[in-house]
C-alpha cells in the first residue's frame, strides 16, 4: 500500500473517532476515487497516481465553486471549499510564481523551444515536475506568453 493511501486510511479512522463528519466524507470520497482507479486499471495506485486523482478533484472543486458563486448558492460554495481544503492537505506543497517561472525557463532552454509549436515539448518536460504542485492552466498560459 502506498504511503499516501495509508495516510488517507489512518486519517479516515481519526475523523471517525473525532466525529468530524465533513472531513470523513471528503476522505471517503478520495479513497473511493482511488479504489475506482484501482478497479479500472487492475493495479494498486502509487502516490503519483493518487496525486493525479487529487489534482483532478481539486480542479473540479474550483470549477464547482465558480459555478455555485454565479448561481449565488453559498451553501454549496462552502461545502466545496471545505472539500477543497481537505483535498489540498494531501497534495504536495504548491510552488511559488518564481519557482514556476524558473522551471519554465529551464524547460524552454532544455528543449530549445522558440515558437508556440514547441509548447508540447515544454509541457512534456514540466508536467512530471509540476504535477499536483501548480495549476497547469496557469503554467500553460505563462508558456504561451513567453513564446509569443
Explain the overall architecture:
This protein is 78% helix and 0% strand. It is globular. The chain has 2 domains: 3-89, Hypothetical Protein Yqey, Chain: A, domain1; 97-147, Arc Repressor Mutant, subunit A, CATH 1.10.10.410. It has helices at 3-18, 21-41, 47-70, 74-89, 97-111, 119-130, 136-147. The longest helix has 24 residues, at 47-70. The model has no long low-confidence stretch (mean pLDDT 90). By secondary structure, it is mainly alpha-helical.
Question: What are the defining features of this structure?
Answer:
Arc Repressor Mutant, subunit A, 0% strand, 148 residues
Strand residues, percent: under 5%
Q: What's the number of domains?
A: 2
Q: Average pLDDT across residues?
A: 90
The helix/strand class is: mainly alpha
CATH architecture descriptor text of the largest domain: Orthogonal Bundle
> How would you name the CATH homologous superfamily of the largest domain?
Uncharacterised protein YqeY/AIM41, N-terminal domain
Q: Give the SSE string.
A: HHHHHHH
* CATH C-level category of the largest domain: Mainly Alpha
Say how many strands there are.
0
CATH topology of the largest domain: Hypothetical Protein Yqey, Chain: A, domain1
What Rg, in angstroms, do the CA atoms define? Answer: 18 Å
Q: Quaternary status of these chains?
A: single chain
The backbone outline, from C-alpha atoms, is globular
Contiguous low-pLDDT stretches (5 residues minimum) are none
Tally of helical segments: 7
Amino acid at each position: 500500500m502506498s504511503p499516501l493511501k495509508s495516510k488517507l486510511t489512518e486519517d479516515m479512522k481519526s475523523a471517525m473517532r473525532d466525529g468530524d463528519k465533513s472531513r470523513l466524507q471528503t476522505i471517503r470520497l478520495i479513497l473511493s476515487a482511488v479504489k475506482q482507479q484501482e478497479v479500472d486499471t487492475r493495479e494498486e495506485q502509487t502516490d503519483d497516481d493518487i496525486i493525479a486523482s487529487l489534482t483532478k478533484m481539486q480542479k473540479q472543486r474550483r470549477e464547482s465553486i465558480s459555478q455555485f458563486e454565479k448561481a449565488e448558492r453559498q451553501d454549496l460554495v462552502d461545502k466545496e471549499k471545505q472539500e477543497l481544503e481537505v483535498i489540498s492537505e494531501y497534495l504536495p506543497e504548491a510552488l511559488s510564481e518564481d519557482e514556476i517561472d524558473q522551471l519554465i525557463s529551464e524547460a524552454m532552454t532544455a528543449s530549445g523551444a522558440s515558437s508556440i509549436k514547441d509548447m508540447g515539448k515544454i509541457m512534456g518536460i514540466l508536467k512530471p515536475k509540476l504535477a499536483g504542485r501548480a495549476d497547469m492552466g496557469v503554467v500553460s498560459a505563462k508558456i504561451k506568453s513567453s513564446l509569443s
